[in-house]
Amino acid sequence: MATKQQTQLDLTGSLIAKSVTSVTLSKRYTQKMVRCCILNIIYQRLELEESELKTRNFKGVPFIVLKNPKKPKHHLINLYISWLNGIEHAIENNYLKEIFLFMRNSAGDVSETYNFKLKYNRDPNTENKRTLVHVQKETTDLLQAIRDLGKNEKLENTRLTIEFTYHPVTPREYQPPGFSAAVQPECLKVPVGKRQLGSVNTGFHKITCRMHGALISDESSTHQPTDLSASRRSSKDKLDENEENVEKTVKTPASKINISEITLSVHVEQDSSMMSNDDSEAGALNNDINCLCELTITFAKVDIIRCIKCAKKYHAPCHGYKNKRMADVNFSCIRCGIATTTDRLLPKFDMKERPIIIKMRLIVYFLENDSELPEELMNSIDQSDKKIILDKLKFFDIYDAETKSFNKVNSGPLISMLFNNSQYLV
Questions:
Q1: Which residue in 324, 325, 331 sits closest to 271, CA to CA?
Q2: DSSP H helical segments within 73-170, as ranges?
Q3: Beta strand 195-201 pairing with 304-306
Q4: pLDDT at position 45, please?
């Protein structure tokens, strides 16, 4: 269902009061809050044209709105407005799970990340018993936390990109207005937001905003997320979730990632890779395995493939294949050339990032096939790499290492992105 783009950000007491009694008005308030937070984060961290802005006040906390949304002049304001239809459309349909707002420096590296996580409650606001007082207090706290970002020096020469992820019920072909499927999502590479700026819960909808970046580089910062369990899906949790981006990934029934067409996509050199007709059996001891995962061990359930150029042996999943039957007959490893490898994913990452993606492939492969991780594998992976991967899987509600619970329903999109030639490991 298409929705009319709204750019007016005035937050009224009457709308807040009704947001705890009506799911429709709660959704409208949620849309306004998301738009308001994104605009004010941009304003507090980057230089905007003051003449295009005006100040409003909510319970003593000033926040910024646009003077004339129909005639923006500043390029960042124009970019922000171009996102609004997609955001509102995805929320209107209960598809949007998360929003990732990236701020990149002149070198293209991500300086700061802001993440909005949305939950939808199908039931009336009776169990939660949220009131006007609750929502006003949470709105005030979140706006103040965003305003406090302005106490830090603003970023210069910064480019904005935005990404979404979606709830599993989202149709495979769905793309919000102005967005298209991403090939190389940034949200899979960045650390999970360490500082929670705040959350607003009407009883029907909940928004949680977190950030990561130089402002909280100190790992011992006291501004840690207060509700770590919120990133974990529970069978008792009645709230559904959804997401977005500027560099998008795959179209699948589970969480998806999208990229805004207004943002330049990253140029990727195309490779053509190949696989050998090597008939070495999976699980046989191979002391000459020289896989990209840097693990010189074999696994009983993992096929070995051989590069036709250098003859080196690799775990099939590490190069994006479930088994050697699915690999290219003329498999050529990425070490023998980006231009000749059929691995469609690895060339999109730099040398430092590839080991994480490769090990994630191996971990996801075992989860999808066995719903658990072998000790031999986990004991062999570097602790820092293991933490990054497990944190990411937990963040996307796929695997919780503490409870050893695997959510197969949510794994589809990640599998579709990580592995070649197959949407799912079937």
A1: 331
A2: 75-92, 132-148
A3: unpaired
A4: 95
Nearest alpha carbon to residue 271 among 343, 221, 175: 343
Cβ distance 163 to 246 under 8 Å?
yes
Q: Is there a contact between 128 and 121 (Cβ–Cβ < 8 Å)? A: yes
* Residue 78 pLDDT grade (very low, low, confident, very high; cuts 50, 70, 90): confident
* Residue at 282 is within a domain: no
Same domain as 102, residue 50: yes
What is the residue-averaged pLDDT of the chain?
75
Long-range contact list for 70-77, CB < 8 A, 24+ apart? Answer: 70/7, 73/49, 74/48, 74/49, 76/42, 76/46, 76/48, 76/160, 77/48, 77/49, 77/52
Alpha carbon 295 to chain centroid, angstroms: 28
Going by the DSSP 8-state scheme, the letter that residue 247 receives in this structure is S
What is the distance between the alpha carbons of residues 328 and 316, in angstroms, rounded to a whole number?
Answer: 11
Residues 251 and 391 in one domain: no
**Domain around 373:** 304-418
Both structure tokens of 262: 């207004």
CA 148, 158, 163, 70 torsion-angle sign: positive
* Neighbour tally for 329: CB within 10 Å: 11
Same domain, 81 and 192: yes
Q: Which residues pair with 405 in a beta bridge?
A: 400
Q: How many domains does the chain have?
A: 2
N residues, the chain:
426
Domain membership flag for residue 284? no
Say which residue the tokens 């990934």 belong to: 249
pTM above 0.70, yes or no: no
CB 258 within 8 A of CB 164: yes
Residues 300-312, buried b or exposed e (16+ Cβ, 10 A)?
eebbbbbbbbeeb
Neighbours of 325 (CB within 10 A): 9
